[in-house]
Structure of ChrR-like anti-ECFsigma factor:
Amino acid sequence: MMPVNHPPSERLLAYATGAADVPLRLLLETHLSFCPACAREVGRLTAPGGTLLEAVPAEPVPTGLFERIWAEASQHEPPRPVEGVPLPPSVLAELPPAEDWRWHAVPGSGSRTARLVSEAPGGCGLFLVHLQPGARFPRHAHRGGEEGLVLAGGVWDRGRFLEAGDWGSAPAGSSHELLADAKEGCWALIREECEDVRLSGWRGVVQRLAQCHSTR
Ligand SMILES: [Zn+2]
């Protein structure tokens, strides 16, 4: 099934022009792996550059170039797919191996998160989120914006049900909660600005205590 919700066009433009930061680029690349419509749009946006390249006169290929590229490429093992997490190989290749992902459980919620990429301290980060079937990711506020997509399963977010490939975003200052599909649960890839997600209620207290501990 094709995604119903897509990234806004300025995000596709940032990807096409190379202006996207690493977490955003990996997020968009993953959406493109689900979405032929957006992949076509990116192709259209990059077409002038492609035409320019085509206009450059062809130079003779240096002898042995392909052999060297082949030798270089065959030294790198292709990334191993991660069961149940349909991340495209091009994205997996840029992430640490799955056994190094450090999972943090969200207390009492049946959900967990792992930070895959940090752009800069206090900057934005790329997170994998897993919700068990029927799990509720508790209400939380974002100091910075959040955007991301569902990788597998489905999730209710502010009255909309998002499925594999669907893009969603929450503006800076907003708060929301998530409810995973009762049968399949949900895997999602999320980019957080400021990496400052504050849980409400007692989970917030636990979160702040845990953060005090980890910074000591
Ligand atoms: Zn799309």
Notes: The beta strands are 103-106, 111-118, 125-131, 136-142, 146-157, 160-163, 167-170, 175-180, 186-192, 197-199. The chain has a mean pLDDT of 83. The pocket of zinc ion is lined by residues 3, 6, 31, 35, 37-38 (CB under 6 Å).
